[in-house]
Amino acid sequence: MKGSVSVIVSAVILSGCLTLSGVYELTAVDQQGAPVSGNTRIIAEGSGIYTARNALCSAHPGATVVIKSGSTGENLDSESPYRCK
What we know:
Oligomer: single chain
Number of strands: 4
Structural class: alpha+beta
Distance between the termini: 34 Å
Strand content: 15-25%
Order of helices and strands: HEEHEE
Shape: globular
Largest sheet: 4 strands, antiparallel
């Protein structure tokens, strides 16, 4: 029973990631909210935000990635802000 619950939870989590749609702007910022130096802005579509977010975090460890809708400019609350490790 315990194994089947974790499979269901995993499926629900993954399905949320896979159904993301739209165009998003990702920006890496420092602790004060200013863009970090270098390439800090990426445009991504749908679930491509995860690849873009990971690329920004690889280039700027410790930064915070802000993800906003490309059409409305509103923050993607379910994924943003994301603190890079």
